[in-house]
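Contributing new records

If you add data, match the layout below exactly. Sequence lines come first and carry their own label; structure lines follow with theirs. Keep one chain per record. Anything else will be rejected by the validation script.
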Amino acid sequence: MASAPPGRARPLVVLKLGGETLAEQHETLAGVADVARTHDLVIVHGGGRRLTDWLARLGLESRFEAGRRVTDEASLEVAVAVLAGVVNAELVAALERLGVRAVGLTGIDAGLLVTERIVELGRVGRVISARPEIIGVLHGAGLLPVVAPVALDADGAICNVNADEVAAGLAAALTARLVLLTDTQGVLDREGRTIAALDEPAAEALIGDGVIAGGMIPKVRGALAAIRAGVPEVVIADGRGRSALGDALAPADGPATATRLAPPSD
């Protein structure tokens, strides 16, 4: 995987956002605009709830396995339309209104993402690497990339890809800090308390016990894969509120309000 260019003047951060409506994310996006003044950001967005709603309107079922959406041919068309179309365009438009020059992309553009097919899930891909040259070009032009989670598999077929895994793959390719914003204060234990720090053995034990479940599984496993690939830090944090991203990037201080993952210390 490629690494970040030497001599970078601004910190580089890959940020994963959900695909909620703009009304739900207005304050969060305002905070993203604040951080974009001092950092080079790459935004990866999801859109699972929006996609589920659209599929239901069309009479199509939503099924999941270990946090990944099972995607057949019919639901793939809807996924591309909603993720690469509706959600991506809404986020770019919202950032532009906040004074951020943003560009919408997918993992298909310029071969940004390299994926392999997860055959048992249908038209679903797993990120195995990335070609982030286009990210550097856009940052050099003062533009913020906003990436929708669809990509091509080895046969050139379009696939739906878990957005947390997309963010982790891009962070690894860029050797960037990774922030995964969610609707909880990080990864929670059985009593609903935030786990301040997490490593791979502890995470797999919590998954095995069912404490980490559903969509949090690919989020945590993607974060751990990013750490193994050289990402210096991953923060899983509450994405609600204008200070969400700034707080996630700030040093931990006081009671745990986010879960932080870092390489093992020597």
